[in-house]
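For the sake of clarity, the format in which proteins appear in this thesis is described at this point. Each number in the token line that follows is a code from a learned vocabulary of backbone shapes. One such record is shown here in full, so that the layout can be seen directly:
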Amino acid sequence: MNCIEIKDLCFSYEDGEKALNNISMVFKKGKTTALLGGNGAGKSTLFLNINGVLKPEKGKLFIEGKQLKYNKKDLLEIRKKVGIVFQDPENQLFSASVRKDISFGVMNQGLSNEEIKKRLEFVIKKTRIESIVNKPTHSLSYGQKKRVAIAGVLIMNPSVIILDEPTAGLDPCGVNEILSLMNEIKDTMGITIIISTHDIDLVPLYCDDVFVMNKGSIVFEGTPEELFLKPELLREHSLRLPRIAHLMSILYNKDHINVNKNAATISQARKSIKELFECGENDE
């Protein structure tokens, strides 16, 4: 089942700049999709159209099979279903305490206190922020603020979570923690994850599908494996191969070592190199 379907979406800013040009794409339910492209490619504009903050001038947007009409009723429903975690959590956290910040979004939904408490306890545990839930938000580390921002989206029971540059500003440990958390949320809750990123190395590790955007148009759609077979397309759009894939490509093409040149992760590369040694041993 498709969670989001976009058909011929167009959007222009007031100055006439064309930001989205007949965009058509599908985001599969329960999958993680990467959205790649340089600055100005249209990724953030697309997200704001999906979330209903911006209204397209043309085209159709379907969320779980229902066309978004951009009226008040539909917009309220869509903003429950499609949550955005911004690149800078400072733009998302505004309450004095963590607990208040997380629960803010559901306070005006007409939910009972019991339901709010139930949801709050669930997302606190799910995002593993029990130790900071009573702290003031200004005292948190950058990585902790990212988790609180995710919890504030998760409490709305969304079908889709969009993460804009989720690894920006994080150290390597923080990157792994945030992406592992989102992977767990996807696998255990069936939530569709969309990630906009410049960090190409995370794509083969965490993403099922990939779109590449350039100047408001889709220039590639497919799997990470299919994308990494097109290094020239990556270079053309200010992207690169993952470092492991680049190494394996050099070993195969320049050093004439018969490794799997399409391996893009450490585990894939390790498997290929082990197979190479095992073949050598068998030849002896």
Observations:
- DSSP finds eleven helices and ten strands in the chain.
- The mean pLDDT is 91.
- The first strand starts at residue 2 and ends at 12.
